[in-house]
């Protein structure tokens, strides 16, 4: 055997990838890398705009994001109903690319318009969920549950690599291109991500099809634009995933509000804030990519999906209790970095594996409802709950204790879902 062949075999054995799966894994990683490079170039800009509008007004931005998400559901539902499964992502990303070019023109004409800043904050918050949700829907559609355990963590490493490259590009280019230029460049990356997804579909075409699968993949899903909502409400399993997402979003929102408060207190300069957010993003993605490449697949194959879903919530419960005792920025930064890296490397791939056990329509329509409307609804509600807790309690420890309780409930939900998925897969096999 040639030297390249030996190296390929060793790399495949190290990463748990079959030789014929390697092109698909590379395409999946590229899809996430390009998507997240563009997004993470713009994320520090969004965070700075959020603080500029006033920390006390963040709950209004979260509420506006939820309303915008509700408006996006029927739009995506219409695309999913009329387009074939293989075309849902290109159509969705094409629509977002046009939006980004519109924002680039607006920021070029009115760079300091507060309403344009607020609109962009809300738009990017909706985009970050919907675009990622559709990408994961494609993977859940093209790979079975066994493949997902081995490959989803690896492909998610492209997500983290983009999270590393994006902030670096943003910091390096923002002075030259400005915010409008960064948005135009992010559009190029988004279109590239759509091409990588197209290659994934072509790879799937070359694989032996499951009975009746190929005609179904080329046909529209049908139904009405709101069908995903009904699918979620009728399925206890999907409702469980929705509960998992609600608890995840609630814990995240509690930390997000504390982040804004502590950053404003410790870093009053807007340039320092942007640099801090970029630095934290870099650290998070560096930790996540190492975990995704070498540990995520091994954890789920050897210890089970329940461990993948429960680890981050349990660590967060401990983190909230630590913050209640030592509410300093250093402790908070460590907890926040751990949560975000753990979510990217463990909780998110694990959550996406749950969707390998549902029907194709649910992988797109119901999943979209859960990943966007349910997530942003939890954001909005928990944002107001956080404001209420802060108003009733004079010490931030009260919010941290509430967060610890939510994290424990989140862990229990993850364990329950892992068991439910196992039963569903056994039933499908039988």
Written account of the structure:
The protein has 430 residues and is an all-alpha fold. It has a single domain (19-208, 216-429), classed as MFS general substrate transporter like domains (Growth Hormone, Chain: A), CATH 1.20.1250. The protein is built from 15 helices and no strands. Helix 4 (88-109) packs across helix 6 (145-205) and helix 12 (305-325) packs antiparallel against helix 15 (397-429). It is globular and about 60 Å long.
Low-confidence stretches: none
Number of helices: 15
How is the biggest beta sheet arranged? none
> Kindly state the mean pLDDT as a whole number?
81
What is the end-to-end distance? Answer: 41 Å
The Rg value, from CA coordinates, equals: 21 Å
Can you give the helix content as a percent range?
over 70%
Structural domains: how many: 1
User: CATH homologous superfamily - what is it?
Assistant: MFS general substrate transporter like domains
CATH class: Mainly Alpha
Return the CATH architecture.
Up-down Bundle
Secondary structure class reads mainly alpha
Strand content: under 5%
Spatial shape:
globular
SSE topology string = HHHHHHHHHHHHHHH
């Amino acid at each position: 055997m040639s030297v390249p062949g030996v190296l390929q075999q060793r790399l495949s054995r190290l990463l748990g990838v079959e030789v014929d799966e390697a092109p698909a894994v590379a395409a999946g990683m590229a899809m996430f890398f390009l998507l997240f490079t563009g997004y993470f170039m713009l994320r520090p800009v969004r965070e700075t705009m959020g603080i500029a509008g006033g920390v006390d007004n963040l709950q209004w931005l979260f509420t506006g994001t939820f309303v915008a998400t509700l408006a996006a559901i029927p739009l995506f539902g219409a695309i999913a109903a009329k387009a074939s499964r293989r075309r849902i992502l290109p159509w969705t990303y094409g629509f977002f690319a046009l939006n980004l070019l519109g924002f680039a023109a607006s920021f070029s004409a009115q760079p300091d318009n507060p309403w344009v800043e607020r609109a962009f904050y809300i738009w990017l918050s909706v985009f970050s969920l919907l675009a990622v949700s559709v990408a994961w829907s494609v993977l859940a559609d093209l790979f079975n549950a066994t493949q997902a355990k081995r490959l989803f963590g690896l492909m998610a490493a492209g997500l983290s690599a983009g999270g590393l490259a994006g902030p670096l590009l943003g910091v390096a280019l923002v002075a030259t291109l400005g915010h409008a230029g960064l948005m135009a460049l992010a559009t190029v990356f988004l279109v590239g991500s759509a091409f990588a997804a197209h290659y994934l579909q072509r790879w799937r075409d070359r694989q032996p099809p499951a009975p009746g699968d190929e005609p179904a993949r080329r046909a529209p899903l049908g139904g009405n634009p709101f069908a995903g909502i009904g699918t979620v409400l009728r399925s206890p399993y999907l409702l469980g995933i929705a509960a998992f997402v609600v608890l995840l979003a609630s814990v995240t929102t509690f930390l997000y509000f504390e982040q804004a408060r502590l950053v404003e207190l410790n870093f009053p300069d807007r340039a320092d804030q942007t640099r801090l957010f970029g630095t934290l993003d870099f650290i998070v993605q560096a930790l996540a990519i190492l975990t995704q490449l070498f540990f995520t697949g091994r954890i789920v194959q050897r210890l089970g999906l329940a461990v993948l879903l429960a680890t981050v919530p349990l660590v967060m419960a401990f983190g909230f209790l630590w913050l209640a005792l030592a509410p300093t920025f250093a402790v908070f930064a460590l907890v926040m970095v751990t949560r975000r890296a753990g979510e990217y490397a463990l909780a998110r791939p694990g959550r996406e594996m749950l969707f390998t056990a549902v029907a194709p329509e649910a992988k797109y329509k119901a999943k979209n409802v859960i990943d966007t409307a349910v997530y942003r609804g939890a954001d909005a509600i928990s944002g107001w709950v956080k404001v209420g807790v802060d108003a009733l309690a004079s010490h931030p420890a009260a919010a941290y204790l509430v967060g610890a309780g939510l994290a424990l409930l989140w862990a229990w939900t993850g364990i329950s879902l892992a068991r439910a998925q196992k039963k569903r897969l056994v039933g499908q096999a039988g």
